[in-house]
Amino acid sequence: MGLDNNGFDIIIIGGGVTGCAIARDLSYYDLKVCLLEKTSFVCSGQSKANGGHIHAGFNPKPNTLKAKLNVEGNKMIPDFCSQLGVPFKRIGSLVIITDPADITILEQLLERAKLNGAPRVRIIDKAQLLKQEPNLSSNVFAALWAEDAGIVDVFLLTIALAESAIVNSCKFYFDAEVTGLIKDDKNNVIGVKSRKGKFFSKLVINCAGVDSDKIMRMAGLDYFRIAPYKGEYYVFDKNIKGLIKSSLYQKPINGGKGVAILPTIKGNLIMGGTFKIVSDRSDTSTTRDGLKEVLDSATKVAPFLKHHSHIASYAGIRAMGNTEDFLIEKPDGVGGLINVAGIASPGLTAAPAISKYVLEIIEDKFFKLKKKANPVNNYRIKPLFKDMSEGEKEEVFKKDPRYGRIICRCENVTEGDIVNAIHSPLPCTTIDAIKFRTWAGAGRCQGGFDLPRIIEIIKRETGVKIQDITKRGGNSKIIGGVI
Question: Which of 214, 313, 400, 416 has its CA 20 to 30 A from that of 387?
């Protein structure tokens, strides 16, 4: 396929899990594709604050695109993760009620599950609930049990998708916030203006998360709006592992899913979040009132949480659209553009199905896709040393003794792991990128032990001056200056 102005066939805006899933799938085809991300790394916006829960499919309203892609994505996720070498577990989820009068809420959710085609969902009574989760309060009454819910590491998944796309020649540009769209005299989008310059293409795919409606307005489309809402969360230490086996939700309130208690693939518990509409789409600050709301709500069903220490708190912004559904479309009246907007929960679950849906739109509305002659179909992200088998560890250590030096004691991350992350297909050269890829600095000490060592390794491996190493790119320098 020919290229105009030394440009690309397809430009993807946004490096969250959805954008990276689409990039990976498109990288298997005979196309020149690039992805523009406004921050310094993937999974740094809406996807970053995701709890990693894979939804079963009983929450979305029936007959919506959200419901369809949730259920399809849930079925696809196990193979999707396995292909990339990303851990995934089906642990099930529970929507818990304490008031017998709320049984109708569970019945309504059960009916939604049936209408949406979500299998293995049923209501269980108090005895069954406490048998499954014996550490819950005795005031629980019943729950909706969904066996097919699961958990995944959203950071590792997004990074693995990006690496897979990159080894198949997809280009990633960071610190490349889109500031405008370029159109021809027939109202076709033919490229973008960004902080990294102009990029030309035959097709632009808008996966800009909380800014997706802003991109649409650049194209002259004013019928869709994002109502950004904030969720605040606690992260508990791993000493709490095993006290909760499944993802726990309470009855939905105020348009949200209620405060949840979520086991993570790493062994922590996450507790949250609040549901508050905000005007500032970049406001990821936590608040005393918000975190108190989370703790008060969660401890009604899991009072033991009062006696365990949390090691971190965070907040994220979600892209709730005014249609209350995913918006995935080729818009009328504007050529060269696909919008993938309003991808709030269950966007992570739906990501593989969303990507498939987008490729179908491309073939139906734009051009036929031709497979590459020799794509890298079997790319798997390299595991951490601690996750290797004993035989693999011995072999890796013989080749590189740096795998024998622990840098992060809380998470057992080695120097070899960090060096590998720095030199991976998607180079991790900031403190946050290292954390997302390896989990170094995410444990009990929150980087207190390992941060100076990681800085030294980045300096040594990249040649970047120590005073120029950042937490997350931009002006987030770790060290103010060197005397």
Answer: 313
